[in-house]
Known about the structure:
Blueprint (H helix, E strand, L loop, with lengths): L8 H8 L8 E3 L6 E5 L5 E7 L3 E7 L5 E5 L3 E4 L11 H11 L6 E10 L16 E11 L7 H9 L4 E2 L2 H11 L6 E6 L7 H8 L18 E5 L6 E5 H13 L2
Helix pairs in contact: 1-3, 5-6
Amino acid sequence: xxxxxAVDLRKINSLTEYPSIPTQHALDPKNGGLLxxxxxxxxxxxxxxxxxxxxGRIILLPGGQWLIGSRKDLLTARGxxxxxxxxxxxxxxxPIAERMATGSGEVLALYLEVYGSTKLQAWxxxxxxxxxxxxxxxxxxxxxxxxxxxxxxxxxxxxxxxRFATEPELHELAERAGTELTPRLFEVDGSExxxxxxxxxxxxxxxxxxxxxxxxxxxxxEGVVLRxxxxxxxxxxxxxxYDRTLKRRATGx
Length: 253
């Protein structure tokens, strides 16, 4: 069993921090708009809904220990009396953490989108303010990496050292956790994805309405995440990026 009082929590935080997903069309460093440089996919591509909420982490350690975090910070751990109430992440994800346990010698990090709470900007798109969550990714990390120094951990993480779950593994983890995945919207061959910015925006139109509303009339989601079944290639296509780019083109700004 990992003794959290004896572990440098900065290392756990760094090991499990979720990476930024690149945009489907490259970002222009000059103005933040999109460039006509799409991510290339070979073979099957799975499109999943990009839910407009906030990212949460459940970090499962050998022996039943767990921590919950936001994208950047750890918020609580098993046995904590006081926890960070930021964005309702802990209260929403604690039941999953308490019923999940890992008997392996690895760290298992579950990445979930927490959405729908009135504490979040886009809550009205999802219902009456009731918080909800969906699993969107997971990674396994060797436990012995906790013996590394923080700089080595960061280099390993940023160099793509983590092994993320494949599509079948994600389905299995969701079943174990008693939760659902972010909606699977389509599966196409990479050659079928539009190469142009305007064409991609038109392609996305069919998937703009959320599939995870908890009540009322479903609103707009944030976009679509594109990924290969083994997650070797992943990108995001957000409506706001395409709309902003096309508006700038139309106005000549």
